[in-house]
Amino acid sequence: MQAITPYLLYEDGAAAVDYLTQTFGFEEVVRSRSPEGRVWHAELRLGDGRVYLGEPGGDYRSPKRLGGVTVSIHVYVEDVDAHFARATDAGAEVRGEPEDRPYGDRVYHAVDAEGHDWFFAQHLREVPVEEWGG
After folding, report:
1. Cα dihedral 102/104/106/107 (nearest 10)
2. Strand order across the beta sheet in which 72-76 lies
3. Are 6 and 14 in contact (CB under 8 A)?
4. Could you give the CA distance from residue 105 to residue 85 in angstroms, rounded to a whole number?
5. Residue 104 in 3-state DSSP?
6. CA-CA distance, 47 to 62, in Å (whole number)?
7. Cα–Cα distance list, 55 to 7, 16, 34, 38, 69 (Å)
8. For 7-132, which CATH superfamily applies?
9. What are the residues facing 51 on neighbouring strands?
């Protein structure tokens, strides 16, 4: 088995875990804390996918603090419209509502509390690349 697991950095790891579990439906698998109480490492799961996160220290600046995008995470879910409803009910900052894309996915775009871009998608149909211009 091969997997790629993003390791996201947050200024406040505990708040990030809370946000991602409550807003986007991730399940907390593990959380390791430093003696000072910072989140050294956390692992979250959504379906078969996983995300790691942690607090790197005082020199780190979140995308929100930097005023720009530093990463975009693309996540496939079973029902993107239901996921969108959950996220908006939880107060997610939505940058794009669910829409069908020419390459066969239905996608919406949200931003987490520290400014990381999240794209949630549901694959609807196979579309040959020649038909959507990829």
Report:
1. -70
2. 72-76, 117-123, 105-111, 93-100
3. no
4. 17
5. coil
6. 26
7. 11, 10, 10, 7, 18
8. 2,3-Dihydroxybiphenyl 1,2-Dioxygenase, domain 1 (3.10.180.10)
9. 44
Cα–Cα distance measured from residue 11 to residue 24, given in angstroms and rounded to the nearest whole number = 19
DSSP H/E element including 18: helix 13-24
Strands 49-54 and 7-9: parallel
| Res. 134: pLDDT tops 80 | no
- pLDDT tens for 70-101 read 899 999 999 999 999 999 999 999 999 999 99
| Length, in residues, of the chain | 134
- Residue 58: pLDDT above 80? no
**Strand, coil or helix: 66:** helix
97-126: per-residue pLDDT in tens?
A: 999 999 999 999 999 999 999 999 999 999
